[in-house]
Amino acid sequence: MSQPTPPGRNPWNPETDPPPKNTKDDKLVDRWTRYFRLYTGVGVTSAERETLRNEVAQRWDYKDWLKCEEQRDHLMRNSPIIRFLLDELEKSGCAFSREHLKCLPCDATRSGGFSPKQGVQICYNRLISKGHMEDTIAHELIHAYDHCKFKMDLRNCYHHACTEIRAASLSGDCRFLREVRRGHLSFVKQHQVCVRRRATLALKANPNCNAPGVAEEAVNKVFQSCFTDTRPFDEIY
């Protein structure tokens, strides 16, 4: 049975090259010898070193993608918040399957994304743990819920601000320890401060809302009504 090929970026040619072998099939000494040559340049030409560099990149890119696929499937089966949001989406007429949650490579600006046409993007090269993935998927599924339930127009800065406020607040993205790991510590309304900051940053990445002051104004305008709207939850998760 052939192994799957990750979408978005194919560091090997699936038509002519097999996917990278599982490390269990490699000879340990040979593998570490090749890695030593890669990082030191001992005994290799520039062209050979570039070939080795690509080989290592291919191996780890494939492993990260495969790990993302496995963790996503596990969370869809076992995470209470992910299962709850998937159930609520189905009740709202917007059922999501694993094909709607895609593991794809991303740039350094984000760990996930949502598009009404493409579904949820899980950035396998930007996630640091299964907990981070869980929060990221929950965040994006809240965007999906808002789009399904309220027909958001993400070109509208107020609509976008509202869903970013809700997603940051309800997904676990602004938990105390996560904020501390980011280097943000406040003893007064830390959750609200985090939600405002995260929502504003997200809006500034929207070309329709990145003019000076626009993101801040939109977040301030809708903050109270959107922050207190915890649907589909009874309270902040």
Describe it.
Among the domains are: 27-61; 152-237, no CATH class. The longest helix is centred in the first third of the chain and has 33 residues, at 46-78. A hairpin with a 3-residue loop joins β2 and β3 (119-123). It is mainly α and 237 residues long. 29% of the residues are buried. Strands 1-3-2 form a 3-stranded mixed β-sheet. α1 packs across α2 (46-78), α4 packs across α5 (157-170) and α7 crosses α8 (214-227). The chain contains 8 helices and 3 strands. It has helices spanning 28-40, 46-78, 80-91, 130-150, 157-170, 176-182, 190-204, 214-227, and strands at 101-104, 112-115, 119-123. Mean pLDDT is 82; it is low at 9-15 and 22-29.
Strand order of the largest sheet: 1-3-2
Low-confidence regions: 9-15, 22-29
The main β sheet shows up as:
3 strands, mixed
Continuous helix count? 8
Tell me the number of strands. 3
- Give the integer mean of the pLDDT values: 82
- What's the SSE pattern? HHHEEEHHHHH
Q: From the helix content, strand content and strand pairing, which structural class follows?
A: mainly alpha
Q: What is the strand content?
A: 5-15%
Shape: globular
Question: Helicity, in percent?
Answer: 40-55%
From the alpha carbons, calculate the radius of gyration and give it in angstroms: 21 Å
N-to-C CA distance: 41 Å
Region (Disordered): 1-26
EC number: 3.4.24.-
InterPro entries: Peptidase_M76_ATP23 (IPR019165)
Function: Has a dual role in the assembly of mitochondrial ATPase.
